Amino acid sequence: MENSIVSGIQKLRTGTQAKDYIAILIRRRWIIILSLLSVVASTVFFVMRIPDIYESFSIVVIEQQNVVINQAMNMGGSGRSIDFYQGILKSRTFLEMVLDSIGIDTFKVQFPRMDRDGAVTYIEKSLSLRNTEYASFMQLNVRAKTAELAYTIVSAGTEIFRRRCSEVETEESRRAAVEIDNQLKIVRTKLEEAEHDYQTYKEKRGNISEGTTPALKTLQDAYATNLAQLGLKEADLNAEHKQLAQLEATITPSESGRSPEFLKLRTRLRELEQEKLRLENLGIQLAGASTVDREIEEVERQLLQYKQEKGTAAAMVDARTVKQWQDLRKSVLNKEEDLDLFKRRLESYKKAIESYKQSNPDILAQSLELLRLQRSREIYENVYNVLLQKSEEERMRSASNVAGIKVVDEARLPKQPIPKNETRYYLFGILLGLVLGLGLAFMLEFNDTTIKSNEDVERYLGLPILGTIPHIVHNKKDGIEIRRRSSKSKKQMSVLQYPRQLLSFSGDDSVITESYRSLRTNLSFVSPDRPLHTAILTSAGPGEGKSLTTANLSMAYAQMGKRVLLVDTDLRRPVLHHLFEVKREPGFTDLFIENPDYNSVIRESVRPNLSLITAGIFTPNPAELLASQKMAQHIEYFKKHYDIVFFDTPPVFAVTDATLLGTKVDGVLIVIKAHHTDKEIAIRAVSAMTKVGVKVWGVVLNDINLTHRYASYGYYKYYYHYYKSKTD
Question: Which residues pair with 568 in a beta bridge?
Fold first, then answer.
């Protein structure tokens, strides 16, 4: 259950992110559309300015050698890559030959100021050579401004290209043959010198081969043969030693149980057997049971006795095992004797080889010199044979008239220019326009530091949202023209167009009136234990719509039957008297005379239960009036005679009026215009008020966009219309 809830929340967040991106696209749609239209228009203009290009081409094939000659030379074809022919095509000689064939006047018809170098460059850029899908076939292309020029260049170029390839190939074969002949002469001379040196040295030094003479070679071969046999005999002897050790482990005590007496007996047994073998090798025949044999038998009996003294029947040794032990000992002794003989023989061969080398110290150097002369002779001989073969191949190639170019398809006069691929350009332009538009839209959006949504208010200001006011559409003809002295020059006048959109809450159930009713309800619950009597509506900066919001909120309270007083304390740029179409004087500033007359200042508006105090005459020190003790007295008077009092004050960031008055009322409500108020200004405004102890209830987010369902607050409008019903 918990996993499903988490999954649902994650999906909801993902959907919200997609909705926000869609809202950005809708909000910045004109930037995207203008970017798209500008790029598409530029693309259309570019496509219309592309000049017509005509293309003409011819097909040529590389002529192959005679089949018999190819087989004799082990060649499968011409062996030329397209780079060889590209080099001829782009060579200065070929291009000038084409120009001389066509004539400079042909180019001056289309390009009056073109000189010879310009014509050569034009021919080079227009000509191209391509491989076709068939081997040995190539396509010579020309693209030019007119069909006649393209046809003329490709016709002349094809013929000159064919002739030039043949000339280059013939000249190359001739030069190759001459160069090979020159190399043959040099190599022949060196080969003769190497042959003479080899024979002379060989006759002088005798029969020396690979660092040895026949006598020394015999000794070395014998030494190598005995050395190889010695390795085999050592391996065989080691194997029998292991076998003998395994057999003795079964008939004699283990290594840990062998006493010194046992070891002495085993040593004595080996000495006796060696003595018997020595006598036999000397030819002495021992008849019957000799003294040596009897001693051997006695020592064997004593050795076996050590195993039998264990006291178990399993320790007894049978006669066959004893016989195998005796035979294996005799075999080991014979092989050890034979191995000693081989080692002595090998040592004698080694001494003989060393003695021969000492008596002939230069034998190795002489052999190496002979081998060097032999290799030098073989190298020059191989080089000479290769050059001789190449020389014959070049003669056969020249005789076969190879590497010719044959025209397969003649060039034709093009009838229409090549396609411009307008669709490709248009698609690219549309894609580029969309990418630029989207990039610019998102760049402006992410660089926009204004407050746009409830989330921004909560994230940056840490204040609750008490109300969201939709954008009020008004007719400019019905708006208010406020004329004020310009801030730049006292002589000039500035005209401010201000909307006069005071709502009638009686019988009006539009989205806008419902948003003010919602604000009224939320404001009522700000302080449930202590009734709300005085409140300030201000903003962080100018142009946020605080005055219109204050007026409509006052009428929303009046519509409930509350006695509401609306006081214009924006003494620098008052607006309320324009909204209610009354005179500015007398007003709020007239209350600060000696004995103020409240009845002359407070006016009843056309709305029931709503009274109004305008700004009054201009005063140079508004902040001092708001901070005075009389201001506190006026507030107490208003609280006694009215249920709720709203004060319209200047922006917080501009002057300190709102901050001064905020310390004397129940609380402050900040109006922020969506996509207008910079977050830094809003943060500083809230910080300025909270530092002096002003109680900030929350924020009214003004002028939000409800024109699209996927905008930030589109669902507000959607659900409002869903629940709205004329016939319940």
Answer: 648
* C-beta neighbour count of 685 within 10 angstroms: 25
Q: In the predicted model, is pLDDT for residue 286 greater than 70?
A: no
Task: In whole angstroms, give the CA distance from residue 568 to residue 613.
Answer: 6
Both structure tokens of 541: 């900066």
Quote the CA–CA distance of 252 and 2 in Å, as a whole number: 80
User: Which domains, and CATH codes, for the chain?
Assistant: 15-50+420-446 (no CATH), 54-170+403-409 (3.30.70.1130), 215-359 (no CATH), 454-471+502-723 (3.40.50.300)
Give the span between the Cα atoms of 687 and 295, in whole angstroms.
121
Instruction: Give the three-state DSSP class for 645.
Output: strand
342-354 pLDDT tens trace = 888 888 878 887 7
Return the DSSP state at 692: T
Strand order in the sheet with 405-409: 127-131, 137-144, 54-62, 405-409
Q: Is the dihedral of CA 369, 370, 371, 377 positive or negative?
A: positive
716: confidence class by pLDDT, cuts 50, 70, 90? very low
- What does 497-528 look like in DSSP terms, one character per residue? EE-------SS---HHHHHHHHHHHHHHTSSS
pLDDT tens string 385-412: 888 888 777 776 666 554 567 888 888 8
Residue bearing tokens 């959907």: 15
Number of Cβ within 10 Å of residue 714's Cβ equals 19
Which SS3 state, helix, strand or coil, does residue 534 take? Answer: strand
Residues contacting 324, CB < 8 A, separation 6+: 247
For 458-488, what is the HEC assignment? HHHHCCCEEEEEECCCCCHHHCEEEEEECCC
DSSP 3-state assignment of 676? coil
Q: Which value, to the nearest 10 degrees, does the dihedral of the CA atoms of residues 36, 39, 45, 51 take?
A: -130
Q: Quick one: which of 76, 86, 65 has its CA closest to 138?
A: 86
